[in-house]
Structures are given as C-alpha cells and as structure tokens.
Amino acid sequence: MATKSLARQQMLGRLFIYSALLLLALYYLMPLWVMVTTSLKPLDEIYSGSFIGLPQAITFEAWSKAWSGACIGTECTGLRPYFVNSIMMVVPAVLLSTGLGALNGYVLTKWRFKGANLVFGMMLFGCFLPYQAVILPMAQVLGRLGLSGSIPGLVLVHTVYGICFTSLFFRNYFITIPDELTKAAQIDGAGFFRIFLSIMLPAALPIIVVSCIWQFTQVWNDFLFGVSFTSGSDTPITVALNNIVNVTTGRKQYNVDMASAMIAAIPTLLVYVVAGRYFVRGLTAGAVKG
Amino acid sequence: MATLDINRVRKAYGNLEVLKEVNISVGDGEFLVLLGPSGCGKSTLLNIIAGLEDITGGEVLIGNRVVNDLPPKDRDIAMVFQSYALYPTMTVRQNIEFGMKIRGIPAEERAKATNAAAEMLQMTGLLDRKPSQLSGGQRQRVAMGRAIVRHPDLFLFDEPLSNLDAKLRVDMRTEIKRLHQRLGTTIVYVTHDQIEAMTLATKVAVMKGGVVQHFGPPQEVYDRPANTYVARFVGSPAMNIIPGRLLASDGVPTVAFDTPQGEAVVRGVPLSAETAHRFAGRDVLVGIRPEHFGLDPCGTVPVGVDVVEPTGPDTLIVFAAGGTEVVARLEPFDAQVGRQERFSVKAEKVVLFDPATETRLD
After folding, report:
1. What torsion, rounded to 10 degrees, do the Cα atoms B108, B111, B117, B118 define?
2. What is the phi/psi pair of residue B70, to 5°?
3. How many angstroms from the chain centroid is the CA of residue B204?
4. What is the spatial distance between Cα A183 and Cα B47, in angstroms, rounded to a whole number?
C-alpha cells in the first residue's frame, strides 16, 4: 500500500513538473511562432487574419524581399550587403580577440612578471566597463586613426573590448595546466611561441571554442557600437535591421520585418547548435581536473 | 657525460635566502642525491642547475663549463619531473620526439632513437597512446624515455617517484639504478626519501635551510654523520642521540650515560687523542645506531624494556637512557616488557657530537 501511494505521489510530481515545463516552453516559443508564421504570410493576410494562426498560403516572398529587396533609407538592397558587412566584422574581430586573449592568458600564467596580478586585475575591470562609457573616447581614437565610420574600425573596437573577456577565459584555463609542462618544454629547447603554439594552444581547445562562441555572439549582436561608429552602407546587420523596421513608409510590412529579424539571428543560432555542447564542456573544464 | 661543480651558489628571493653558499662537486658518471625535507632548497638547487631559475651568486659548472647564463636548452641536460610533465595533447611518440624535432634531427633518426628508448624501457606498445591513457608507472617511463633520447651530459630527476604507490616506487627505483649503470651518465636526483638516497646515490648531499649539512658517499653519511640533524634524518629508525659524558682519558676513549637501571659505559669509541683530551670529563652526545646494540648477559648497558616491537627479521626494543627514548634493533628473542636485560654496544660504530654545536667530534 505504502509503496503504491509513493509511486502515485511521484507520478503526480512528475506530471506537475512536465506540465510546468511544457507551459513555460510554449510561452517562450510563442514569439518565435509568431515570427515564423508571420514571415511566411502575404501582407494582406496579416492585416485581415489573426496574428497567431497558420498561414493559408505559404510564401517566401517576404524572405527574399528582406534578403535582397527591402529598402533601407533610399537604397533598396535588402539585408544582403549588411550581412556581408557583419561577416567582415565578426570574423577578424573574433579571431583577433581570441588569439590575443590566449596570448595574454599564457603570459599571465606561465611567464609571470612583476605586477602581473595588477595587470590581470585591470583587465578584469574592463569586463565591467559599460559600453556607453567608452563611446566618446573610442570615437576620438577611431578619428585619429582614420578608421571612423568603417568596418575595420568596428573590428578594432570589438577586439579591444573583447580582450578583457577572452584574457579572463584563457588565464583561468591555463592556470590549471601545470607549470612543469612549460619547464619541460624549455629544457626540450622550445621557445616562447613554440611552447604557446605546440603545447598550450592544442591543450586549450575547449576554451578556444568558448571564447569564439562568446565573442561571435557579442560582436554579431552588438548594436550600440555599430550605430555609433558607422553609417550608411557600412553598418552591420543589426543597425540595418533597425532601419528596415523603423523607416518604412506606408503600410508596415510585418512579414518582411519578421523575416529580416530571423535572418539577422540565424548565424548566432547556428553557432550555438553546432558548437553548443563544447560551450558547456569548456565552461566547466577548469572546474574539474582533466 | 660530465662533471658537475657547484661553487658558492646562493639564491635569494628578495630578503629570503633559500640557498646559502652551497658547494658540491661530483665527478663524471656519479649519482648525486640531494636529500632533505621540503623547503630545504633542494628543488631550487636543481632548478638552478637546469637553468629554470637564475642564480643570485656563485657559479654552476657542467663539464668544466660555466653555465650560469646559458638557457636550459644549451646546457645539455634532460629532466624528469615529479608530475612527469608529459604534453597532454601529444602521443607518447610525439612526446619523446618533441625535443629532437626542435633540435632539427631528421625524422628517420628520431624514430630510431625513440624505438631504442622504448625498447630499453619496455614501452614499445605504448608509443601511440596519449598520456591520459597511461598509468602512473607508464607515464614515469615515458618521462624517462624523453630524457634518454636527448643523450644529455646530465640527468636531472625532481622527486620522480613520489607520485607512485609504494610497490611501484621500489620497482622504478631499481629501474633508475639500472638505467644509471647502463648509461653511465651523471645524475642529480632530488628526494626527501632517505632510503632512495641510500640505495641510489654514489654521493649524497643532505640539505636543511639552504645549507648542505653533509656531503659524501651514502655509507659515510650513514656511519659518520656530520651533525645530529643528519644523524636523525638518515636511517630508520633514526640514530639514537643519548646525552652522556666522556670519561677522563686513560688512553682508551670511553663514554658513559645513565639508564634508570644504572650507568652504562662504552669503552673504545673512535675519537682522536687530541679531542679526547679536550673533552675529557665533559658532556657529549652519544650517537648509537639501533642495530649496534646487542643482547649480551655481560653487556655494559643495563636496560629496562619499555616497549617490544617485533618486525619479523628484527625485534625493536625501546628503553630509556640519558633522559630520552632509545631504540635497539636486535635479533628476535623472547623479550618481555618490564624485564631487565643487558646490552652491549659496538663501540667502534659510536659517533660523538658536541652538545653545544651538535657537530660530530672526531
């Protein structure tokens, strides 16, 4: 009797947990549902029918318009050139900030110098610096360097801003790698960069993935730096998306807006789907001794 | 192969002096063990020999060449670390070949050297594995293989056995000794384990507080320790240091100490006539190894047995003398707690120390 009621209680508990989870999942998926369905409906149907219902006739017109026909300002080029802008910005920014962060972490743990802790502390401080605080000085710096209003300028901004985070990642990872490894390599005759490239980097694969995902998401999704430092045809996709949604005249083209938003979100989604499991693995890698 | 000379070497971190004027000199093919408790400076000294730490004063010579300012790779040394320090992402083969690769040795020669080392250390089957797939003993072998292929002038071992379990430690100890006999290369070996030091070394340097307390062959360190610290550190159970006195000299140096059962007298301890004369009638510390006691009805040491510890081959008897606890290692006999016995002492093995300086009297 007792065991039976226990099993019943457990089942009730399960039921409650699963229904709660289901409800929350539905709640969080609702916007996505609206986005997908809306983007597949012709404009007339959106204005006449319900917001949530399935499209009566599926059409990809809004997607192709968002990609290559929507007007941003006076140019009707769609998101395509801005997508390319974002790629041109995100790839070098991610590679540079991850590479420099790895080098910083390596120096801060294996080639310690006087004041290394102070330097690390100041880098850490950079993680807590709000974007808004650096906009004005950064604009001046970019102006002096002749990089204002350009994609290379944005690459520089994101690299500088990202180094704080990537250095933190790599420093905390490399500190778990025993110093004797560096000593053994020194006796083997390896120099500073040889040890870095042949021994430290291969051992740091999980944290490299973490750093890349983190930086990709940060840089791709950034709006503030993009809108502050670029304009016209040089803006990244986030800024272009904002312009599409805000600047249309006449009837608001909800289906094109939704399709545009999804195009802008797809790369980060893809990165998480492909490399997501490495992300969790890498974040916990420092916690347990491998 | 090479000689190693350490001349007046000092090392300080700011105001903290970890090595004070260390002098050690060993010939070609010797096995030098740096022995001491943790924090005595032995690992620092090894790192200085390796070139992994810079030197505050003095000089290090490998094969009569001053290496103070040479980077580790130019010193012709190989080192085995306590944690083995194998490169985690490389296979065993890549680990062993890494150093040769950097020195630009052609692939064919590298493979040959690696295979030879693998055969010598009986790990041919392990060459394609990653370090994480190896046991502690196997990792140790790989670390040794990595050192061997270098054909160095000098092998450096930093507590290589302390991460292994007791059984494996004894096996690997034998293996290291065999390696030394086979290669004949000069070795510097750091350990805190006095048995490792005794079994492996041709020369031992016992260190404490950054100072070499005694430097000499292991048997000498054991038989004639330079001071009471060395006497207590080397040997298990440790040497008994019993407060006693040197009797007025009549030509044969004689010491006496008290036990609750009466006065113990040991005639004919090794001491020069000059010292015997100087210390006649004064207090001395009498050092007697446990195995130099013997059960003897006519012995001169009256003993009240406090504790009996049979170990199998020997029986340890604990008794009181000179106000301290004394251990004797005897052939097994029917020992009874509380009974009185008489022990003899091998007088020629007794070591005397000055109570003021705790150094050996000769």
Report:
1. -150
2. -85, 140
3. 5
4. 9
Dump the DSSP string for B38-57.
Answer: TTSSHHHHHHHHHTSS--SE
Domains with residue ranges and CATH for chain B: 4-233 (3.40.50.300), 240-361 (no CATH)
In chain B, residues with a C-beta closer than 8 Å to the C-beta of A285 are none
DSSP code per residue over A20-31:
HHHHHHHHHHHH
Query: What confidence category does residue A255 fall into, taking pLDDT thresholds of 50, 70 and 90?
Result: confident
Length, in residues, of chain A = 290
How far apart CA B209 and CA A100 sit, in angstroms, is 42
User: Do the Cβ atoms of A187 and B103 come within 8 Å?
Assistant: no
At A290 the pLDDT is 35
Cα(A13)–Cα(A140) distance, integer angstroms: 60
Q: Which two tokens stand for residue A193?
A: 């960069």
Backbone angles phi, psi at A222, to 5 degrees: -65, 135
ipTM of the complex: 0.81
Any idea what DSSP says for residue B298? T
End-to-end, the C-alpha distance of chain A in Å comes to 47
Q: What is the value of pTM for the model shown?
A: 0.81
Q: Do A198 and B98 touch (CB under 8 A)?
A: yes
Residues of A with CB under 8 A from a CB of B: 178, 180-181, 183-190, 194, 198-199, 202-203, 290
Q: Which pair of tokens denotes residue A272?
A: 């998480």
Q: How far is Cα B228 from Cα B226, in angstroms, rounded to an integer?
A: 7
Spatial CB neighbours of B80, under 8 Å, sequence gap ≥ 6: B140, B143, B144, B146, B147, B155, B156, B157, B158, B160
The runs of H, that is alpha helices, within A146-253 are 151-174, 179-187, 192-195, 201-203, 205-221, 224-229, 237-247
Cβ contact B98–A188 (<8 Å) = yes
- Location of structure tokens 């690696």: B114
Does residue B318 or residue A1 have the better pLDDT?
A: B318
- In the structure encoding, which two tokens stand for residue B301, read together? 């040491």
- Is residue B360 helix, strand or coil? strand
Distance CA B311, CA B317 (A): 11
Q: Are strands B31-35 and B203-208 parallel, antiparallel or unpaired?
A: parallel
Measured in degrees and rounded to the nearest 5, phi and psi for residue B158 equal -105, 100
Q: What residues are paired with B307 via a beta bridge?
A: B318
Residue A288 pLDDT more than 50?
no
Task: Considering only the beta carbons, identify the residue of A178, A194, A202 that sits closest to B89.
Answer: A202
Q: How far apart are the first and last CA of chain B?
A: 36
Cα separation, A166 vs B319, whole angstroms: 66
* Alpha carbon distance B32, A161 (integer Å): 53
* Structure-token pair, residue A233: 């045809």
